[in-house]
Predict the 3D structure of the following.
Amino acid sequence: MSAVSRTGRAALSVVAAVVLLWTQAAWPTGRASSQHRESTATARAAASHPLPGPSASGSGVTDSSVTGLGPLRLVQQSPFVSPGQNFLVEVAVSGPTPSAGVDFEVVLGARIRSRIQFLRGLETPSPRGRRLGFRHVPELGIWIFDPKAPTTVRVERGETVQLVVPVVPSDAAVAGLDLEEGVHPLWLVPVRPPERERPRQPPSGVVTTHIVRMPDRPEEAETLDVALIVPVHSAPAIRDDGRSTIPAERRQILVDTLTTLAARDVPLTILPTPHTVSVLAENDKARSLLRDAAEGRQVATGPFVRLPAAALLESESEDRLSEALRLGRRLLRSYFDGNLDYSTWVATGEVTPQLVSFLVRAGVSRVVLPSETLRPLDDRLFPRTLTRPFGLDEDSGGLLAFAADPNLAAHARADDPVAAAHQFLADLFVLFFDSPGVHRSVVVHLDDDLPDPSFFDVVLAALSSARVLRPVTLDEAFEFTEPARAAGETAREGEILRRALARSSSEMVDWARDRTRLLGRAEVLVSALRAALPRESPVVRRAETVVMAAMSEEIDPGVASEYVEAVRRVAQSTLGALRIPDQVVTITSREARIPLQLNNLGAERIRIRVMLTSDKLQFPDGATLDVEVRPGSVRIPVLVRTRSSGTFPVRIDALTPEEDLSVDRATLTINSRAVSGLGVFLSILCALFLAAWWLRHFRRTRRDRRLMALP
C-alpha cells in the first residue's frame, strides 16, 4: 500500500475533521437529539430489517464476500473508532461491472457477542440489521450518514466513494451513531436492478467488514498482546550447477515484505529459515533488508531447512536433526547478532513427546505449537479461545507453550489484502472484548505464503495506535502473560494447565528412513569433499547445503534424487580436476628419487592420498603419501629402490584423505639400468682374471720370442 495508501489515509483524516465540524454546524441540535441515537436501537433490532437470505458465494475466509472479489472492493477504512470520531470507509468498483457503476447499500449489524459468531459471519455472510442512509455532499466529495437519507449509494467505475459515519456518545447533541462498544458487522451489499431480481435469490458479492467501537476508557482496560510471527521462507530449489536459488516471484515477495517490516518500528518476531536467508543474503540489498527488518526484534532460530523433526527422531536420526539445528544457528549468527533467540522453538509440523524431550536437551524452554498438534480443551472449563501460555503433559522440563491461532492466520490468506487486514484486526478486537479486564496474549504464526505488503501496512499501523492492542515479541508474550490454570479460564491460582499432544508418534517415520537411505551416498561425497578441500571452500558449503536441503519435507523423492545427483556432479567436477598423467622414468642406480607429476586443473587446493604399488620396487619413505596439490602442475619427489635392472610398472592411486573416494589412477613406468652387488663382484673378478691371463700370455709370448732369437 505504500505512499498512495498513506496519502489516502491522511486525506480521509482531513475529511473526517471537516465533516465532524460540518455536521455539527449543519444539523440542528433539536432534530439530532431525536434522531441520532441509532446504535442502541440498531443493536436491539438488528434482525428487524433482514435482507433476503445468506450469501451463496461459498464458505471460508477466502470467499468473495470476505475478499471483495465481487462488484465492490474495500479500498480502506478506519480500523477502529471512539466516540466523537468519524468512521470512514472507502469503496471502489471491482471486477466486471456495468460501465455506469454499481449501486449498493450499507447494512449495520448488532454487536458480535462471541468469536464463533464472528467467524460464522465471515464464512456465511448474512446481512441482517439496519440499512444506513447516506447523503451525498458534493462540495466535500463524500457521502455522510443521514438517518433520513436514501439507503442506496452509487459508485462509478474508475472512482471511489468515501462514506462517513459520525460515532457519538449517548449524550451527544449531534447526529450520528451511538454504538455499543465492541465489534459490529458492516456489510456492503450490491443492489440489483429490479428487472434482474429473482425471487428468494440471496445477495451476491457482499463485502463484509466491521466497525470497531473502542471502550470509553481504553486506558483502564488490560491490553491484549499480539505476538506476530512472520516467516522468511522459501522451499529449497537448486540450479544445474548445484547452487541454491529462490524463484524470482517468491524472492520479490520476500523482499517486499522485508521492506515493509523495515519501514515500521513495531515489535514482532521474525522466523527466518537459514537456507532461505543464505540465498537471499547473496544480494547486498536483500542482506541489508534482512538486518534492517530484524533490528530491535526477536529472531527465532531453527534447523537449516524445514525438517520432519519428530520423524527423524523416531527413525534414529537424531544426529541429523542436531546437525541441521547447529548449521542453521551458525548460519543465522553470521547475519543477525544480538537479537537471535535460541530458547524458543516455533513448530511447523508434527510434535511428539520425543521431540519435546529433544528440544529440552537442546536448550529450548518455550515453544509455539500449531493448534492441531494439541488435544482439544474441555469447553466447560475453557469456553473461549485460550489466550494464555500453558504446560505440556509430557516430561517437558518446565517448558511453556502457546498455541498459534489458526483463524487469525487464515485471514491473511484472502485475495484482497486490505479487506483481510481489517477482518484480522476485527478478530483481534473480538478477542479483546471477550475479557477486557484480563491481560492476555495471542500468538499469530503467518503462513509461508505471505500476504501482500498492504496487509502489513494496515495491521502494523493499527497495532501501533490501538491502545487496547499491544504488539509484542514472543519473549514478551511469554514473560508478561500469566499461564492458564487447570481449574479453568477464570482461575488465577492453582496448578498450571497442562495440555496433551494429539499424537504420540510420527506419521512420517517411513519417509524419514527412505530419505536417509537416499542421501547416504551423497553424504559420503560430502565427507570426501570436506577432507579433500580447504575448510573455507565454497564447494564444500554448496555440497553441504544441497544434502541438507534434500532432507526438507517440502520436496518429494524425485527432487531429492536430483539433489543427490547435483552433489555427485559437484564432487566429480571438483575432484576430477586432479589428473595424474602416465609417466616413464629411467634410473641408473639402485636407489633414486623420481619426480611424480600431479596436475590440478581446477581453482581449489586439493588434498589427496597417493598410494604406490609395485612388485619389483621398494619405497623406503613409504608407499603412501599425503599431498596438497595447488592449482597447476607439481612434481613430488618419491624415493624408490630397485633390486635389479629392467622395466617395472608402478600403479598410482589417488584417493581422498580418508580413502573413501577414488580421485584418479595412473601408471608410472621405471626403466632401471642399475646393476646388483653380485654382478659388480663377478664383473671385477672376470676383469682381474682377464688381466692376469693377458699379462701371463704377454710374458710367455715375449719369452718365446727371445728363445727363437738365440743361435
Q: What stands out?
A: The first strand starts at residue 72 and ends at 77. Residues 1-69 have pLDDT under 50 and may be disordered. The longest helix spans residues 677-709.
